[in-house]
Amino acid sequence: MRTGRTGRATAATGAVLGAVLAALLLGGCGADGKPAAQRTEPIATADGSSPGTPSAPPAGTPSAPAPRDPTTPGPGPTATAPPSSPRATSPSTTLVRVTRSGGFAGRTGTLVIGEDGSWSRLDGRADEVGRGKLTAPQLGTLRAALREADFARLPRTSKSGTVFDGFTYAFAYGGFEVATGDGSVPMALTRVLDALPPFED
Questions:
Q1: Which residues contact 150 (CB under 8 A, 6 or more apart)?
Q2: Element (H, E) at 99
Q3: Which of 10, 40, 52, 197 is deepest in the core (most CB within 10 A)?
Q4: CA-to-CA distance for 94 and 144, rounded, in angstroms?
Q5: Beta bridge partners of residue 71, listed in sequence order
Q6: Where are the domains of the chain?
Q7: Closest CA to 97 of 2, 192, 200
Q8: What does each of the 201 residues of the chain score in pLDDT, given as a tens digit?
């Protein structure tokens, strides 16, 4: 009788242990019967993405600039325009212009007098070789002589007399041009010549 009881107790104990082992094994497996450690499916997060998978940035987020290739030369320095050099300027508004040519040396020179009395002396190539400014009394004398000359009534050319190695003059004033020469210069133009700055230093 004792042997039968012992056998039944041993069988019951084995059944209990078997049930415990089955529960432990089934607790570590998924619905497909595989252990959790062997699963390959990603676990979804709260936003539906899988952990470790980069998600697209939200709309409106600026993207980072692409890195520059170190072998590609960058933009060169910005070129700047060189500063302009100052230039000699003649009077902005011309009052009278007188050109003298001839003489013993056969030279040509021009005086350009501005409305404000500033003047420039030009050589035969029209290069500036001198400049200055008339005083207020000098400018007043020149203006009076120009008005009294009455260019509108003067002959365009007056060269009746001939002077050996003399000068010829060309006047431009008030829209009129008059040419004359030593020996035939009208008295009115003589006063204009006397009121001009010198043709040479």
A1: 188
A2: strand 94-102
A3: 197
A4: 16
A5: none
A6: 2-38, 94-195
A7: 192
A8: 444 454 455 555 555 555 555 555 555 444 454 554 444 454 444 455 555 555 555 555 555 555 566 565 555 545 444 444 333 444 559 999 999 998 877 789 999 999 999 999 999 999 999 999 999 999 999 999 999 999 999 999 986 666 677 899 999 999 999 999 988 899 999 999 999 999 988
